[in-house]
Structures are given as structure tokens and as C-alpha cells.
Amino acid sequence: MRKTLIATAAALLPLLAQAHMTWLLPNSTLVTNRDGVVTIDAAVSEDLFSFDRALKLEQLRITGPAGLVLQPEGQSSARHRESFDVKLPKDGTYRISNFSRALMGAYKLGGETKRFRSTPETLDKDLPAGAELTSLTETATRQQTFVSREQPGEVAFTPEGTGLELLPLTPVTDLSNGDESRFKLLLDGKPQANANVTVRRAGNRYRYKSGEFTVQTNAEGEFTIGWAEAGQYWVGANAGERGAPGGPGGGTRDKPIKRAAVSATFEVLPK
């Protein structure tokens, strides 16, 4: 069990360190090379796009124009990042996402309360025999990015349907400062109204101003980002209940506390 919990804790790094950001970062959001290959780095960091720890890749989903489904290639692991390639077979815009679900909570055994971390698939194995589950929180986390080969074309992605996600309503590649992009924020496939969305520009490590602002979704879950400056951007949102693990109202096996987070990365070029 000790080995299982250690492995699970490593998988939950992005969930345990909410002060840190998780992200997928392509080497370019507009691919024009002959072979049509883009490389994606996945990491966790406190300073945006500085590689602190590798992000564990759980369920990679790569969707292309007209619902085309692709598989990653050349995946590699290092201490500070995970990396993989995506070959874009045709012109248009592609969505790349990494999705994970995790559990954390507390149980009583022999009069002692202990905290634990697990996954929906391994919960029964991770709980000791005879343990009384006293609280349970389920977290769904998604990282997204978008890349295009040559012309971005029409942007019309089907919602993935679980957890939080950003659904672009206008092109989100080949952007320049002064452009605007429209999105819809969805939670389990439904519009998330009146939610706060954080926008952060990279490079704050080298400047005093934070380059961060917040926008709010409307009643239909839609919002607009105006890209005032060139650079790389991180966009994130959270949703869900609050509760103290191990305390009253801390969630049960049948009805866990549910939380969700999403982040997405974008590139804005100078005009």
C-alpha cells in the first residue's frame, strides 16, 4: 500500500499544489514545417512556463478538424517535464488536452484518523481492510492547448463532457496583439455562468508588473479575452464545492465533494 500511495501522490502533484500552475506548452501554435509536427511540453511550475516538475500525462486527447482523433508520438519523460510529438496530417486547428481524476480524503482505523490519496480506479485497493471512510473529495483536472497547421480554418470542437473545459468559439491560433478570442466555459458539458477566469501572461519572472487579469463568464458561460500584448498566456478556472477533509460534510463514497480545474495555453504574436 505504501508504494501505491507514493505513486498516487506523485500523480496528484498538480492537485496538491494549487499555488502552482499546470500546463501544456507547444513549441509553436502555428505549424508550417514540412512534416507538420509539433512538440508539446507538460509541466508544473510556480513561475509560468518555467519547468519545475514534470506533469503526469493521464488521458491525452488529441482532436483535429472534423473530429479527427490522433495519437501522440515520441513521448519522453524527464525530471522537469514530459514531452510528446503530434503529427498534424491536414490543415486546420487541433485541440490537445490532458485529463485526470483523483480522490483525496480521510478514514478511521483503530480509533485513529488518517488522510489518504487515491484514484477512482484504485480506491478499494488503497483503503485498508476495516477502514471507515469519513470524507472524500473527487478532483477533475484538465490542461488544454490548441495548435494549427497552416490556416487555422473553422473552429468547431465537440465538448469532451467531463470536468471543466474551455471551448473556443473563434480562432485561437495565429493570434496577434489587439485580437480578441471568445470562449465558453463548460462544467460536465454544461455552461458555467458567472465564473471567474484568470488570464496570466508569461515572463513575469523578469518584470515587476504581474500581467494578470480576471474576466467573468456571462449567463451562457461565454467570455472574451482581449490580447493586449504579445506573449505566451495561461488561462485557468476552478469550480466545485468546498469542504474540510475529515470534517462534517466532507463527502462520502456515494456523494464525494467534487472540484474541477482547467488551464489552457495560447500564443500571441506581435503585429
From TrEMBL:
InterPro entries given in the database record: DUF4198
* Assigned keywords, A-Z: Signal
Q: Which residues form the signal peptide?
A: 1-19
Q: Which Pfam families match?
A: DUF4198
User: Can you name this protein?
Assistant: DUF4198 domain-containing protein
In which organism is this protein found? Pelomonas nitida
